[in-house]
């Protein structure tokens, strides 16, 4: 008899666990350097509304760049396709915080999932609102999607990144020099640092991302959260750009759209099937969790989940 979903989640965690602690934690953000690398969690939320978990799936962690998927969804709702005038949708083949392309391409970031692109997206998401209102919308969105009002921003992590944010400041000033920011640099960055400091567990993250596996709908009520077309497009951008210069390797191994964060979290989407969140703090050179991507690879293979079916 085929393994049940819970058995496959447990088996994927057990298979990846020996890799726990491999790689390096993101010590360029001092608050993240303190995280115990020997943790691993996995959660699979299926379209029928069930969430299967294993390991440290209820421990909150800093979702960092995984937040870029949610700000992209909200900014597209707010500005519609006009957003694409400030940011492209091609893989960069460079590190998440690289500045090289930004100069040669006149301050228009390659895609919304590298840092420069995400800062531009957050800038547009703010629009004519205050940072507080914008962040409240984002937190509210995640709470509603995950059906969990305990989701918060870790302000210590946000401040830690703001202090150590020279690289992101450079990217933002560069875009400002090309008139590709509508807000003052520190306003756009203040919101960006806070979105990156959102603290979610694997269970919360998988539930929050589930609408992306359901054609943009709420799996329980059927309400359309974002349009089907936009949902497909966000998944396409995650597939091609979600892991920076590691995106090809992730597609090759896991076969699903995904987004990594330097807190060690990864959100992967299996359209029509479910959302998977894996977390373990040790990262490879591209900032993707080593044990987390191993858990995803094992699970996707066992469950037969791939967009290349
Ligand atoms: N907050 C991080 C940064 O801007 C996000 C990077 C990431 O998770 N890849 O450097």
Short description:
Helices cover 45% and strands 11% of the residues. The two termini are 22 Å apart.
List strands and helices in order, with pairings.
Blueprint: H1 5-16, H2 30-33, E1 41-46, E2 51-55, E3 61-62, H3 67-79, H4 100-104, H5 115-126, H6 131-146, E4 152-153, H7 155-163, H8 166-177, H9 185-196, E5 198-200, H10 202-209, H11 228-241, H12 247-253, E6 258-260, E7 265-270, E8 274-279, H13 290-303
Antiparallel strand pairs: 1-2, 1-8, 3-5, 4-5, 6-7, 7-8
Helix pairs in contact: 1-13, 3-5, 3-11, 5-8, 5-9, 6-9, 6-10, 7-9, 8-9
The protein binds glutamine.
Protein described:
The chain has 309 residues and is of the alpha+beta class. It folds into two domains: 2-64 and 200-303, Beta-lactamase (3-Layer(aba) Sandwich), CATH 3.40.710; 66-196, DD-peptidase/beta-lactamase superfamily (Beta-lactamase, 3-Layer(aba) Sandwich). The chain is built from 13 helices and eight strands. It has helices at residues 5-16, 30-33, 67-79, 100-104, 115-126, 131-146, 155-163, 166-177, 185-196, 202-209, 228-241, 247-253, 290-303, and strands at 41-46, 51-55, 61-62, 152-153, 198-200, 258-260, 265-270, 274-279. A five-stranded antiparallel beta sheet has the order 2-1-8-7-6. Strands 3-5-4 form a three-stranded antiparallel beta sheet. A hairpin with a 4-residue loop joins strand 6 and strand 7 (265-270). Helix 3 (67-79) packs across helix 5 (115-126) and helix 6 crosses helix 10 (202-209). The relative contact order is 0.20. The mean pLDDT is 97. Residues 64-65, 96-97, 115, 161, 168, 196, 261-262, 287 line the site of glutamine.
């Amino acid at each position: 008899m085929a393994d049940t979903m819970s058995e496959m989640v447990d088996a994927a965690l057990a298979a990846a666990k020996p890799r726990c602690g491999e790689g390096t934690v993101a010590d360029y953000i001092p608050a993240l350097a303190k995280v115990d690398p020997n943790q691993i969690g996995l959660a699979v939320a299926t379209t029928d509304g069930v969430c299967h978990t294993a390991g440290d799936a209820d421990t909150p962690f800093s979702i960092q760049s995984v937040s870029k998927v949610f700000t992209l969804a909200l900014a597209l709702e707010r500005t519609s396709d006009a957003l694409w005038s400030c940011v492209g949708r091609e893989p960069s083949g460079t590190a998440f915080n690289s500045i090289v392309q930004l100069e040669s391409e006149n301050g228009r970031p390659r895609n919304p999932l590298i840092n420069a692109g995400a800062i531009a997206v957050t800038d547009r998401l703010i629009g004519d609102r205050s940072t507080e209102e914008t962040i409240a919308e984002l937190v509210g969105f995640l709470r509603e999607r995950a059906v969990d009002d305990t989701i918060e921003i870790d302000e210590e992590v946000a401040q830690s990144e703001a202090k150590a944010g020279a690289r992101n400041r450079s990217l933002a000033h560069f875009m400002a020099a090309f008139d590709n920011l509508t807000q003052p640099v520190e306003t756009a960055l203040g919101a960006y640092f806070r979105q990156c400091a959102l603290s979610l567990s694997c269970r919360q993250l998988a539930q929050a991302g589930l609408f992306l596996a359901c054609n943009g709908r709420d799996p329980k009520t059927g309400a359309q959260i974002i349009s089907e077309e936009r949902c497909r497009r966000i998944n396409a951008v995650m597939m091609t750009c979600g892991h920076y210069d590691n995106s090809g390797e992730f597609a090759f191994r896991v076969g699903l759209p995904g987004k990594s964060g330097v807190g060690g979290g990864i959100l992967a989407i299996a359209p029509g099937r479910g959302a998977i969140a894996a977390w373990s703090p040790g990262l490879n050179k591209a900032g993707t969790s080593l044990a987390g991507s191993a858990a995803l690879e094992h699970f996707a293979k066992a469950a037969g989940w791939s967009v290349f079916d």
